[in-house]
Model the fold of this input.
Amino acid sequence: MAADTSQSVAKAAGDDVENDVVARGRSRRTDSDPTDRGGKGASGLRRALATHWYAWAMVAPVVLVLGVIIGWPLVRGIYLSLTDANERNVSRTIGVRHIEATYEFVGLDNYVAVLGDPVFLQRLVWTVMWTVACVSITFTLGLALANMLNRDFRGRAAYRMALILPWAVPGFVSVFAWRFLFNRDNGILNKILDGGGIAAIPWLDDPTWAKFSVVAVNVWLGVPFMMVALLGGLQSIPGELYEAAEMDGASAWQRFRHITLPGLRAVSMTVILLSTIWTFNMFPVIFLLTRGGPGDSTEILVTQAFREAFVSSPRDFAGSATWGVLILALLMIFALVYRRSLRKQGEVW
Done:
């Protein structure tokens, strides 16, 4: 009797194990069934929307605004760059009469024309020189001022406020103020030089001095941002590192080289990238200070695009869009190369 009971129990256990194996096999086949993946993905999306509906609702207006403000103009600009649109063949309304657009699709002809024009190379070379000069000088001055203001001394808060002031003043106001300072006949700078017996300098009338002037103004506008960002990075470096290095006999230069610079690497890489993009597209300083002159000596890519669309006659909308798309492409290439170089150095960005 006991033997029969044990045999029955063993048989029942075996049947349960066999059923469990079969069920697992069926579930695996069901999970791996490619015909069910679509439904599973759809249900996963519905589940995500149901779970995080509040986050999606908060993000949707931002995505919509960015699409309207950035996405549509970008798509429209790329399309115009592939046409021959200008002031004479776009749709326009004169009085009560509406004239339809007659411009045509020309493919990559505009890009071939711009890239083959010596003007593009001239503008590109000066734009790169202007960007490198402004960013390097701004970073150097910002780092020096940040190191000075990171120390304890009397009146530190007042100095910080004074150095941040150029950042608080609207850009066009600052540029107009500098334009007055650079005036050849009545400018304060030439008045000071004249008082010292030095001949007046044609700040905005000579190509070389004009380039120096626009770089100086842009540096003056960019130093506060660089200083504040680097000052925040300096304050995040533990002071114990400097104390330990000083106890080991490290000099000030060695502490700066082996502690400060590595500690600021993440912040430095970010501000250099942002400053490069901003400077590359810094339209107000060039346009308001020199109008691209004298002649076209201080024209950069973005002011040339503006000139094509609003100054030249007839206004070349397709050419301006082409310049804009090329500027975007250059900045994207720079950002990708920059990101790749950071990854090689072990930085995550």
Observations:
- The two ends are 75 Å apart (CA to CA).
- The first helix runs from residue 2 to 31.
- The chain has 15 helices and two strands.
